[in-house]
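User: Could you check the structure of this?
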Amino acid sequence: MLQPAAVALQAAFLAVLFLFVVWVARSALRDLRRPDELRAAMASPIAPPSDATGLHSAARTGVAGAAVEPRLIVERAPGHAPGLEYEIGAGAVLGRGEQAEIRLEDPFASARHARLARQGPVVVLEDLGSTNGTYLNEELVTGPQPLHQGDRVRIGDSEFTYVDR
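Assistant: Sure, the predicted structure tokens are below.
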């Protein structure tokens, strides 16, 4: 004969199993109905807010369609005057070492800290395995990141603004 506790556990298990199957079926039906909702939403597009981030044009041109050389503007950096501009050209390495095109007198910068590289009309920022990291708009750079007008690059106590117009 079965003990009352065993019967109660079996009933509870079957109830939980039944609720799980109902939950899965409900989720599946909701997902199957979702494309209709998406089609309705796409039929009446809503303009994104003016401060929304998104895709940026890959090619930048200045006045009268002339290409503008991208550059970094010093906001604050030990040994550099604020407002000083560095043209990036084909690319540049930032760091404390002799091989760096943009020399930093920052104790938190590595010898070869970060690299700016041109990839067509786009400038890409990449950390070169530095000890303290490179930050783009206060987020740690973990791989190559494209730069956009007004982006802020921070290495230790040094901060730059990217300008391409």
